[in-house]
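Example for tutorial group B:
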C-alpha cells in the first residue's frame, strides 16, 4: 500500500467530482433506506411477536451498541487501507442482506442477530464515505458533507412512502425480502462506477486543495497512496484524538442530538399508530414529512456553516428543535402536532452534517477516518441508550411522555456546544486543524 499508484489524469475533473459526490450520496441514501424501513416495520413486528415497548427499544439498543463498538475499528481501517470504493460497496451489501434472513424468522433472538449484522455494515459506510469527501474537498466540507447527509434524508424520506404502500399489498416478511434488491444493485453500481475513480481507489483524492481556501487543486496525473501505519501508531493517534477537548465536546453534543433523533424515529410511528390510530401508510407519510424537511435543510445549513461558522448554525438549529418539541407537547393528536413533525425534521437534521464538518475542522486530516469512527461511536452510544430509556418511559408513563424525554436530550446537546473552546466556537468553517 505504499509507493506510487500511477493513474491517468481524468479529462473532465468537474464531471468526475460531481459524479463522486452524488454517487456517494446516493449510496448513503440506501444505507438510510434500510434504517427507515425497519422503523416503519417495528410496530408490525412488535405486534406479531407480542413485544413490550422496552423489548422494541432493546432491538434498536442492540443495533446501536454494535455500532458503537464497530465504528472506531472501521475508521481505523479507512485510514490504514486504500480501497474505499470496495469498502463502500461491501457496506451496502452487508446492510441489505440480513433483511433476507429477517423475513424468515419468528424468533426474537434471531431478529437481534440480524440487526447486529445490519449495524456492522452500516457503520463501515460512514467513516469511509465522510473521510473520502472531506479529503477531496477540504475547503468545502460543510456543503459537501451536507449533500452526503441529504442523500441519507432522501433514503429515510422515500422509504416510508414506498414501504408503506407495499405493506398495503404484502406482508412485512415479503417486503423485507423484496427490500434486499435495491441494496445489492446499489452495491454493484458503487463498485462499477467508483472503483476506478482516482482518489477512491487510493486513500487520498486528487481534488485536495489547501484547507480553508475553499478551492480544490487540479487533478494530478499520479496519486500517492497513504502509508500503512502500524496499529500501535493508530492507537496512539486515537488516544490523542480523545484528548482533544473540541472533538470531545462536539462528539458528546452529537450523541445527545442522536438520542433525540433515534427516540423520535422509533417512537413517533408507535405513537401515531397505537395512540392516534393512524395506519402504517399514514405513519409513513409523517416520517416522509420529517425527512423531506431535513432534505431541504441540510445543504442550506452546510453552506451557511462554511460562510458564517459552525457554532451559529449548530446552536440555532438545536434551540429551535427544543422549541418545536415543546409545541408538540402542548398539541398532542392535533394537526399542529403533525405539522411540527416536519418543522422538527428541518431543524434536527440541518445540524447533522455541520457537526461532522466541525469535528473534522478540529482534527488532523491524516486521521479523518479514525475521527469519524470516534464520532459515530459516540453517536451510536447515544442511539443505543435512547430507545431503551424511551421504552421504559413509554411503559411507565405512556408514549406521549417520550417527547418530554426527547426535549431534554436536545437541550443537553446544545449545552455541550457552549462548552467548546472559544477559538473554535467563534471560528468560521472550512479550516482544518
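The residue assignment follows.
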Amino acid at each position: 500500500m505504499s509507493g506510487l499508484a500511477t493513474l491517468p489524469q481524468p479529462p473532465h475533473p468537474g464531471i468526475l467530482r460531481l459524479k463522486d459526490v452524488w454517487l456517494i450520496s446516493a449510496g448513503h441514501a440506501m444505507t438510510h433506506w434500510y434504517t427507515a424501513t425497519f422503523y416503519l416495520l417495528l410496530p408490525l413486528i412488535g405486534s406479531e411477536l407480542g413485544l413490550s415497548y422496552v423489548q422494541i427499544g432493546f432491538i434498536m439498543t442492540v443495533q446501536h451498541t454494535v455500532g458503537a463498538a464497530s465504528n472506531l475499528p472501521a475508521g481505523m481501517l479507512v485510514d490504514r487501507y486504500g480501497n474505499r470504493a470496495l469498502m463502500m460497496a461491501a457496506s451496502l451489501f452487508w446492510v441489505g442482506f440480513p433483511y433476507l434472513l429477517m423475513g424468515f424468522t419468528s424468533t426474537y433472538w434471531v431478529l437481534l442477530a440480524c440487526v447486529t449484522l445490519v449495524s456492522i455494515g452500516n457503520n463501515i459506510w460512514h467513516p469511509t464515505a465522510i473521510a473520502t469527501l472531506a479529503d477531496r474537498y477540504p475547503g468545502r466540507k460543510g456543503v459537501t458533507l451536507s449533500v452526503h447527509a441529504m442523500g441519507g434524508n432522501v433514503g429515510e424520506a422515500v422509504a416510508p412512502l414506498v414501504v408503506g404502500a407495499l405493506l398495503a399489498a404484502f406482508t412485512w416478511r415479503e417486503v423485507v425480502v423484496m427490500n434486499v434488491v435495491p441494496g445489492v444493485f446499489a452495491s454493484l453500481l458503487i463498485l462499477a462506477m467508483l472503483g476506478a475513480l482516482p482518489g477512491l481507489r487510493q486513500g487520498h483524492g486528487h481534488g485536495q486543495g489547501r484547507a480553508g481556501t475553499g478551492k480544490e487543486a487540479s487533478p494530478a496525473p499520479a496519486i500517492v497512496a497513504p502509508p500503512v501505519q502500524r496499529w500501535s501508531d493508530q492507537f496512539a493517534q486515537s488516544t490523542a484524538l480523545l484528548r482533544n477537548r473540541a472533538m470531545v465536546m462536539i462528539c458528546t453534543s452529537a450523541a445527545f442530538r442522536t438520542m433525540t433523533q433515534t427516540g423520535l424515529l422509533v417512537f413517533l410511528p408507535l405513537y401515531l399508530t397505537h395512540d392516534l390510530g393512524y395506519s402504517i401508510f399514514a405513519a409513513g407519510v409523517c416520517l416522509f414529512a420529517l425527512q423531506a424537511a431535513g432534505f431541504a435543510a441540510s445543504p442550506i445549513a452546510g453552506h451557511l456553516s462554511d460562510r458564517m461558522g459552525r457554532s451559529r448554525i449548530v446552536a440555532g438549529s438545536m434551540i429551535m428543535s427544543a422549541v418545536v418539541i415543546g409545541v408538540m407537547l402542548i398539541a398532542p393528536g392535533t394537526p399542529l402536532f403533525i405539522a411540527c413533525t416536519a418543522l422538527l425534521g428541518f431543524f434536527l437534521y440541518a445540524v447533522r452534517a455541520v457537526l461532522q464538518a466541525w469535528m473534522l475542522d478540529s482534527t488532523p486530516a491524516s486521521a479523518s477516518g479514525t475521527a469519524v469512527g470516534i464520532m459515530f461511536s459516540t453517536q451510536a452510544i447515544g442511539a443505543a441508550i435512547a430507545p431503551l430509556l424511551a421504552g421504559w418511559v413509554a411503559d411507565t408513563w405512556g408514549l406521549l411522555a417520550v417527547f418530554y424525554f426527547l426535549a431534554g436530550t436536545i437541550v443537553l446537546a446544545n449545552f455541550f456546544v457552549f462548552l467548546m473552546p472559544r477559538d473554535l466556537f467563534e471560528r468560521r468553517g472550512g479550516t482544518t486543524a
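The chain has one domain: 10-203+231-426. Compare this with the pattern of hydrophobic and polar residues in the output above.
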